[in-house]
Amino acid sequence: MNKFIALFSICLASLTFAQKGLAVKVGLQTTGILGAKIGDNKNGFGFYAGLSNSFKLDETFSFQPELLYSYQTFNNVNVSINELIGGIETEENLRARFDYEYKTHFIKLPLLLKYQPKDIYIEIGPELAYNLSSRVNSEDKFNELPDIEGKVYNTNDFQLALLVGSGYQFNNNISAGLRAGFGFTKFIENSYIKNFNVSFGISYKIK
Predict the structure, then answer these.
(1) 10: which DSSP letter?
(2) What is the SS3 assignment for 34-46?
(3) What's 188's DSSP letter?
(4) Cα–Cα distance, 110 to 52 (Å, whole number)
(5) Half-sphere exposure (CA, 13 Å, Cβ side) for 78?
(6) 113-149, pLDDT tens digit by residue?
(7) To which H or E segment does residue 129 belong?
(8) Could you tell me where the beta strands, DSSP code E, fall in 16-97?
(9) d(CA 187, CA 72)
(10) Phi and psi (nearest 5°) for 47?
């Protein structure tokens, strides 16, 4: 936690006090599970907002750190009893039964290398994220068990992902981009869930 706070502070300071390139970012996103091992993936939707800055390395390359708040949802659906707890593979135990909806809140620190020879740009780099809170809602399709909503325990507070993206610079202040993120870290310790994320956003340079 202390390491994250230190990194958070450094990134915030670099974003706030740099002389050029400070921008506000907002966007929409969809999140899912990479290769769901039980049940099926069903993407959820969310949004993000924050700040970015750009430090030119030469005429075409720049380093772009960002500080974002991210609200994400994703779903693990059609989970059978057999997939949850094992046991005898009867017809009933193998039937798709439970749906799980996850709602998460993250602080994210993308650290991107950006290549922009003209108006179109591409970007790539790691993303560090801290899980502020996560909740899950479970639903029994057979209506034999009540719906349950509560906090997700044993989550990995620190998440690591690889980001790749591309976008277009409309003018000196406004740009729009599409970005994909592929998670390396399991969402919950000792689980199968790793997330992928696709987002579309707009950036407005304020400094």
Answers:
(1) H
(2) CCCCCCEEEEEEE
(3) B
(4) 9
(5) 6
(6) 999 999 999 999 999 999 999 999 999 988 888 888 9
(7) strand 120-140
(8) 23-33, 40-52, 55-56, 61-79
(9) 12
(10) -150, 170
Summarize pLDDT for 54-109 with one digit per residue, the tens: 888 999 999 999 999 999 999 999 988 887 777 677 777 778 889 999 999 999 99
Provide the token pair at 152. 């997700």
The secondary structure of 97-119, three-state, reads CEEEEEEEEEEEEEEEEEECCCC
> Which pair of structure tokens corresponds to residue 135?
């909740």
Q: Is 131 exposed, middle or buried (0-12, 13-18, 19+ CB in 10 A)?
A: middle
Proportion of the chain above pLDDT 90, given as a percent? 64
Tokens 């349950």 identify what position? Answer: 148
Name the helix (H) or strand (E) containing 12: helix 2-17
